[in-house]
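ok trying this again, last paste got cut off
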Amino acid sequence: MAVVLVVPSPWLNIRGFLRGWLGLLSSQSPPWAPALAVQGPASLLEPMGEKAENDETPSFLDNIFWMAAPKSRRTIEVNRCRRRNPRNLLKVKRNIDLCPQCGHVKQKHLLCGYCYQKVRMETSAIKAQIFAQEGGPHRAPTVESVVLYEGEKPREQDKGKRIIERARKRPSWFTLD
């Protein structure tokens, strides 16, 4: 006894389903556009009627920017020799001296960092006093300024200059001249 089994194909249902969705998509959205844009070779940009100077067909590699690449890996020994080369190491400084004002260590040709901090603090205090005296940064006169500390009097050459008086003793590093 032979039995013939008839099974409906599932492809008919899937095909109908896809047709329905594609119909909805085409009616409700703009026409399909490419999803990926790629820069083509330069020959595609030239008009078809004109002949190029050379008759060679351009390759797609003509538009690629070629960069240098190492042929082989550097060994650990080569890397260490390069990194530990004496010209790359820290150099011993021989121009170290003590600051005559405060006694901190400094380089001979540079201002001591500790003394420079004191200069910055004094300068900012003088600027604050000028700001309070003038009433703002844009009201300052166009004359030279002279800072006088307590016990000092204006000299002959200070006439016509703006005088800022500080109520403290003059620091040793801030000379009068």
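PB: full thing came through this time. The chain has a mean pLDDT of 79.
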